[in-house]
Structures are given as structure tokens and as C-alpha cells.
């Protein structure tokens, strides 16, 4: 009896421990084995949540024609695609297809993370900025050129040159109450990085040279150095007529314009006007688009335009399906609807698209014909920061510099850190060369 | 008593008491292991690999060496210590002062006590929005006040200048988290026997002497706990700093948690380095906690 009781009790303990162990094992298995998905589910990461209606319709058409389902993750506000992607990778759930910039696409390709999307690009008339050994790794869907906006009721003339921008910004700051003439952004933001790079381009500074496999940093050499110092000096002077734009992203500049704290800024496409149309419609007619300042007698020959589109990763579960989806998206009848879901901000990736009926007939674009004309007149000058090797070949140093917003940091080194323009040029040159060594 | 009956007795005791203990202990242990142990172990494991989320290669302690020898590490560590110490001590001083005021029977004491909870309840995003607006160089009320009274000639860019960014973040943090110390200290103050003060007064003690010899000893345990807990929280604080300055300008407010985030998600992601830095932070805080418990023996204070 005692033996039986002992056996029963031991059995009870064993059962207890066994049950606990089983539960733990199942729990751990459940935690570690979660996620994933079959090869027929395409995981799609996009930061275009504002265009989700059109995207969802394209996905529905795709799912109707192919034996795939598309599971979209829209990045949350304030989270970049890069950040979201890294979180998904860390969780062991990489997306199959990502909406990203051509610059990031080139970095991913360099790291060996991409599968080609040649069928979606080659022979379609689309640009092919990330072509490596004959294979295309990026399917463009939109371009987003940088663009300036200024208050036409406050500026006495449309500023075009470095000097007219400076004199008008100074006059506005000194004569107008509670409003600065211009916004100079600095810091580790895309806004500051793109604007600073474009200022240097405007003054004909060749930041880099050489072929893709041997990029050389030339910003601090010969005449380039003189022009770069001149550009940073101009920026330093303009900062006197600007609110403190340290750490400002796109939205901060727009907000300053909207709140009438500043009378001019450089941003991306029609992003400011789209926001202001919503919040301050009374201001819209007082804002005019413009390009970046050019030197006296110079002309606009290199204009930063983001190019965004699809990249297919090679470490997902549905790589082939993702390649099909990239091609389907570019060929979809709804493609231009997607582009025009944010008119003025997003533009078609081809001149043919720009001249299409859909663009011509878009109501928002028709209300801002001056912005459309600016885009049309400068179409041939648009380029991405990636295409800055000799002859426009891909430049991995520029891609990495953009990824770390080095040029925004250079402006911060000068405007906040107190470096002179000369020291700033030395600093950025050293940092860029440091990127080459990594 | 035979061996069998002894064993029987022990097993009976096991069934009645220890099984209950085991039944409560095992789920907690499992929970601890799954929710804390596994992620910590996973993260520390990642810290030993280069590119742990991609083509992972065992790198031993190379990530630790890389982080410790980076230029930013010493800056971020210094900023972390400055931020954690200053925000904790100021929160403590503010909380103590207000708790002493509210502990007296003054007009509006109850209202003040109720109001003190609001900063703690407000979302961090709202707090930062409010403080960036207040301290804005163009439209901020603080700059307007300083200019109107001639205290400054030019508006101060609080969150955008290297000398003012850290103080501005600390002020916003103290405003939000000061009530934590306030409520703990107020509860402790209200537990002090009023007869002690009465007796001290009868024996001729001044207000200062009563504060020094009665109030402070009673608050010592609570103060030590606040310093430890709040200090650790502030050392690990990420959201309020990132929302206010993103670690800038020029890394003036880059603390170790911001650096972890920058390593993990910005530019060229370095998860190995980020997890290594998180491991270093964990070890630093563990070392501080051990020294703290060894020197101050706060458990004795609480027990007393």
C-alpha cells in the first residue's frame, strides 16, 4: 500500500513535471516557430500607406490572376522603410518585396540581398538605374524631384541665383515681422542631406569621380574645394535669415512655411503644398514653386530626384511570386493611378508618363501648372544621388553617404558645431573617405 | 520511526506544501524564462555574430570591442550618466519639495496632489510637443519671456544647440517624471508618526532639526529606492530624448539607448554592434545595482 502510494505520488510528481516540461516545450516551440508563411504568400513592405486604396486594388487584380496572396505591411508613421525592414529581418520574417529608393536598392544589391527584376524593367521603357552585370534589380514606379517653394506675396521677385536668394531672404528677415526669409536645414535628416548635396551640385561641385568600382572623393580637390567652400559659406550666411533648422525633417520645414515662420524653403516635390492645401488653403495661392539657386549666368544641369520602386529580396519565401508582382505592378492599368495618388509629390518615372492623359487631366496638377512646367522644363536634369559616378554610373559611396545623411551632418557641423566652411569641407571629405574604408 | 514511514511523512509534507509552492513557482519560472530569459539570451547570442540577421558569422567579442572603441561610445556613456543623474536628482528634489508642501495642511494641497499625476499620465509624445512648443525659438513662450525681460538678446534654440539641448531634455523629463518621486515620498511622509514632531517641538528642536533628525531618516529608504529605480529607468530612457532631439545636435543628447537604436536601424544597420552595446548597458547597470545594494543596503531601510 505504502509502495503503491509512493508510486502514485511519484507518478503524480512525474506527471506534474512532465506536463510542465511539455507545456514549456510547446510554448518555446510556438514562440520560436511562429511567423513564416507558405511560398504562395508574398510579403510586401511599403511606406505608401496613404496610397493603400490603389495598392489594394492592384493587389486584388494580381491575386485574381495568380495563385499568390499578397500580405502588405505598411510602415507606421514616423518609421522609415529601413527601420521596419531591419525589424522584420531581426524577427526572421524578411519581406519578399520592398518599396524603396534606387539608392537603397543598390546598397542591398551590393550586400547580396536582392533577386533580379529584369522582366519588370528591361524592354518596358522604364529607367534601369540598378543594372548590375546585365540584370536589373530595381523596378521604378515614381520619381520625386526636390523642389523649392517661396511666398510670392512677400518676395519681390522670383529668386533664382545664389545672390538673389540671399538678398531677398535678408530683406524679408529684416523688413517683415516674425517671419524669416528662408529655411536652412541641418542634421541627420533626409531633408538636410538632400538639400545640402543639391546646393553643392548647383555650384558645380563634383563630389565624386571615377567608375563604380573605383569611386574617388573629389570634393576637397582643386576647384571643387573652392566651390564647396563657397557653397558652405553661402549656406552659413543664409542660416542668419532662417529659423534654427537643426534636425529638421520634411515636415518641420513645411510646418514653418504653414505657420508663416519662414517665407521660403527647399523640400521634395509638392509635399509642402499638399500639406498646406489641407491645413491652410488660404496660403496656397501665395506659394510658388522654384528650383534651387544657381550661380550667376549658370544653368540647371543636375537636379536631385528620388526614384522609388520595387526591389525583390532573395531571402524570402516567395521570391518568384514577388518578381511576378513587381512586373504586374508596373504593367497594371492602375499604375498611373498609384503615381497620381499623391500628385505634385509623386511623378511618373518616364517622360511618356509625364505626357500621358492621366497626368494632363489631373485636377490637382492643373491647379499648379507652374509646378508641372518646372518639372517638364527640367526633366532631363533629373538624376538620383546613386548616378554620380563618372558618366552617371552607380556610386556606392554616395549611396552609403545618403544612407547616413552625411551631408546633412556636414551642415550641422558648420552651423551648430562652429566649424568654418573650409573645415566643413575637410570634415565631409574625410567622412566620405571613411565610408570607402568600411 | 522506520525509514519508510519517515519517507512517507516527507512525501506527505511535499504534497501538501511544496507541491503548492512548485505549482506557483514553475509557471512563474517559465514565464520569466520565456519573456525575459530567452530574449536576453537571444540578444546576447546575436552580439557574438557579425551580421546576425543576415549572413551570420561567429565573431566572438569583436562587436563588443568595436563598440567600446568607437568614438561615439564615450560621448554616449557620458551623456547617459549626465542625463540619468541630473534628471533623477532633480526629480527627487522637486518631488521632495512638493511632497513637503503638500504634506502640510495648506490651501489647494489636494488640488496640487491631483495635478501632480497629470504629467505622468500624459503620453510622452504630447509632453515633447508641449515642451518643443514652449521652448521654440520663434514662437515659444519661454523665449518670449526671456526676450521681454531682457534676459537674452537673441532667442535660444533650446533643442537645437549643443549647450542647451541636454538641459532642455532634462527639464522636460523632470517635468514628466517628477511626480514619481513626489507620490512615493508623500506616502512615506504621511506614514511618519506626528507625535515624533510634537515631542521634538516640546524638547525645543527647530524646524530644521526636526527635518534633519526625523523626516530625513524616515525618507532615506524611499530616497534610495527612487535613486536606484528612477536612475535605471532614466539611464535606459529612449523615447523622450529621441522624440525631442533624435540624439542631436551633433550627438549632444546621444545616450547609450539612442546609440543602440542608431546602430540597429540607421544608416548601415549593425545588429551585432547594437546587441553588444545593449549587453554592455545591462552589465553596467548590473554592476551599479550590486554596488548600490552593497553600500547602501536599502533592504535594511525598507525592513526597518
Offer a few descriptive terms:
heterodimer; A: 438 residues; alpha/beta; D-Maltodextrin-Binding Protein, domain 2; 2 domains; nine-stranded mixed β-sheet; two-stranded antiparallel sheet; 47% helix; disordered N terminus; B: 304 residues; mainly alpha; MetI-like fold; sugar transport (chain B); MetI-like (chain B); membrane (chain B)
Structural class of chain B: mainly alpha
Q: Separation of termini of chain B? A: 44 Å
Name of the CATH architecture of the largest domain in chain A: 3-Layer(aba) Sandwich
- Shape by Cα distribution of chain B: flat
Q: Assign the CATH superfamily of the largest domain in chain A.
A: Periplasmic binding protein-like II
Which strand order spans the largest sheet of chain B, edge to edge or round the barrel?
Answer: 1-2
Number of strands of chain A: 15
Between the first and last Cα atoms of chain A, what is the distance in angstroms?
A: 75 Å
What about the largest sheet of chain A?
A: 9 strands, mixed
Query: For the CA atoms, what is the radius of gyration of chain A?
Result: 26 Å
Largest sheet of chain B: 2 strands, antiparallel
Strand content of chain B: under 5%
* Average of per-residue pLDDT values of chain B: 88
Helix content of chain A: 40-55%
Q: What would you say the CATH architecture of the largest domain in chain B is?
A: Orthogonal Bundle
Provide the CATH top-level class of the largest domain in chain B. Answer: Mainly Alpha
Give the total of beta strands of chain B: 2
- As a percent range, the share of helical residues of chain B equals over 70%
Write down the CATH topology of the largest domain in chain A.
Answer: D-Maltodextrin-Binding Protein, domain 2
Quick one: CATH class of the largest domain in chain A?
A: Alpha Beta
Amino acid at each position: 500500500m505504502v509502495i503503491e502510494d509512493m508510486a502514485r505520488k511519484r507518478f503524480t510528481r512525474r506527471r506534474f513535471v512532465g506536463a510542465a516540461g511539455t507545456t514549456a516545450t510547446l510554448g518555446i516551440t510556438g514562440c520560436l516557430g511562429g511567423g513564416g508563411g507558405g511560398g504562395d504568400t508574398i510579403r510586401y513592405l511599403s511606406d505608401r500607406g496613404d496610397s493603400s486604396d490603389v495598392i489594394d486594388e492592384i493587389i486584388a487584380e494580381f491575386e485574381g490572376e495568380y495563385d499568390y496572396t499578397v500580405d502588405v505591411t505598411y510602415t507606421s508613421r514616423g518609421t522609415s522603410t529601413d527601420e521596419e525592414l531591419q525589424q522584420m529581418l531581426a524577427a526572421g520574417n524578411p519581406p519578399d518585396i520592398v518599396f524603396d529608393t534606387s539608392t537603397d536598392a543598390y546598397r542591398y544589391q551590393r550586400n547580396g540581398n536582392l533577386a533580379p527584376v529584369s522582366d519588370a524593367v528591361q524592354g518596358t521603357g522604364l529607367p534601369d538605374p540598378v543594372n548590375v552585370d546585365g540584370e536589373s534589380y530595381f523596378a521604378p514606379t515614381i520619381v520625386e524631384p526636390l523642389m523649392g517653394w517661396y511666398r510670392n506675396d512677400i518676395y519681390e521677385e522670383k529668386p533664382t541665383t545664389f545672390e538673389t536668394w540671399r538678398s531677398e531672404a535678408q530683406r524679408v528677415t529684416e523688413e517683415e515681422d516674425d517671419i524669416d526669409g528662408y529655411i536652412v536645414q541641418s542634421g541627420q535628416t533626409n531633408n538636410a542631406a538632400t538639400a545640402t548635396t543639391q546646393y553643392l551640385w548647383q555650384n558645380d561641385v563634383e563630389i565624386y569621380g571615377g567608375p563604380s568600382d573605383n569611386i574617388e572623393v573629389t570634393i576637397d580637390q582643386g576647384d571643387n574645394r573652392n566651390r564647396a567652400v563657397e557653397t558652405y559659406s553661402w549656406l552659413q550666411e543664409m542660416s542668419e535669415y532662417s529659423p534654427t533648422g537643426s534636425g529638421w525633417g520634411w515636415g518641420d520645414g513645411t510646418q514653418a512655411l504653414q505657420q508663416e515662420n519662414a517665407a521660403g524653403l527647399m523640400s521634395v516635390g509638392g509635399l509642402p503644398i499638399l500639406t498646406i492645401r489641407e491645413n491652410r488653403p488660404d496660403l496656397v495661392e501665395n506659394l510658388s514653386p522654384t528650383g534651387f539657386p544657381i550661380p550667376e549666368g549658370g544653368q540647371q544641369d543636375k537636379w536631385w530626384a528620388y526614384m522609388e520602386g520595387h526591389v525583390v529580396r532573395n531571402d524570402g519565401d516567395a521570391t518568384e511570386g514577388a518578381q511576378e508582382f513587381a512586373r504586374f505592378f508596373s504593367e497594371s492599368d492602375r499604375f498611373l493611378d498609384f503615381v497620381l495618388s499623391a500628385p505634385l509629390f509623386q511623378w511618373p518615372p518616364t517622360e511618356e508618363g509625364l505626357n500621358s492623359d492621366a497626368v494632363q487631366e489631373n485636377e490637382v496638377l492643373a491647379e499648379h501648372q507652374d509646378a508641372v512646367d518646372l518639372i517638364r522644363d527640367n526633366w532631363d536634369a533629373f538624376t538620383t544621388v546613386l548616378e554620380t559616378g563618372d558618366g552617371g554610373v552607380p556610386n556606392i559611396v554616395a549611396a552609403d553617404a545618403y544612407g547616413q545623411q552625411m551631408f546633412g551632418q556636414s551642415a550641422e557641423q558648420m552651423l551648430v558645431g562652429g566649424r568654418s566652411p573650409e573645415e566643413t569641407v575637410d570634415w565631409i571629405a574625410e567622412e566620405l573617405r571613411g565610408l570607402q574604408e568600411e | 520511526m522506520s525509514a519508510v514511514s519517515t519517507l512517507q511523512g516527507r512525501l506527505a509534507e511535499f504534497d501538501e506544501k511544496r507541491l503548492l509552492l512548485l505549482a506557483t513557482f514553475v509557471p512563474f519560472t517559465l514565464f520569466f524564462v520565456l519573456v525575459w530569459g530567452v530574449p536576453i539570451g537571444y540578444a546576447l547570442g546575436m552580439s557574438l555574430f557579425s551580421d546576425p540577421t543576415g549572413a551570420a558569422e561567429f565573431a566572438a567579442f569583436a562587436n563588443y570591442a568595436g563598440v567600446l572603441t568607437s568614438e561615439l561610445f564615450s560621448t554616449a556613456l557620458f551623456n547617459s550618466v549626465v542625463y540619468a543623474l541630473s534628471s533623477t536628482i532633480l526629480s527627487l528634489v522637486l518631488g521632495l519639495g512638493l511632497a513637503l508642501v503638500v504634506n502640510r495642511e495648506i490651501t489647494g494641497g489636494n488640488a496640487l496632489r491631483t495635478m501632480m499625476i497629470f504629467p505622468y499620465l500624459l503620453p510622452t509624445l504630447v509632453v515633447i510637443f508641449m515642451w518643443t512648443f514652449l521652448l521654440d525659438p520663434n514662437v515659444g513662450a519661454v523665449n518670449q519671456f526671456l526676450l521681454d525681460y531682457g534676459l537674452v538678446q537673441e532667442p535660444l534654440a533650446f533643442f537645437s544647440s549643443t549647450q542647451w539641448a541636454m538641459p532642455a531634455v532634462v527639464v522636460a523629463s523632470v517635468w514628466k517624471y517628477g511626480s514619481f518621486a513626489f507620490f512615493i515620498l508623500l506616502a512615506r511622509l504621511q506614514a511618519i508618526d506626528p507625535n515624533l514632531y510634537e515631542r521634538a517641538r516640546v524638547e525645543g528642536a527647530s524646524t530644521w532639526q526636526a527635518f534633519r533628525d526625523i523626516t530625513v531618516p524616515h525618507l532615506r529608504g524611499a530616497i534610495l529606492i527612487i535613486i536606484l529605480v528612477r536612475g535605471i529607468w532614466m539611464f535606459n530612457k529612449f523615447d523622450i530624448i529621441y522624440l525631442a532631439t533624435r540624439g542631436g545636435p551633433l550627438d549632444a543628447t546621444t545616450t547609450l539607448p539612442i546609440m543602440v537604436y542608431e546602430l540597429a536601424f540607421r544608416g548601415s544597420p549593425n545588429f551585432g554592434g547594437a546587441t553588444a552595446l545593449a549587453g554592455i548597458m545591462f552589465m553596467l547597470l548590473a554592476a551599479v545595482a550590486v554596488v548600490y545594494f552593497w553600500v547602501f543596503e536599502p533592504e535594511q531601510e525598507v525592513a526597518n
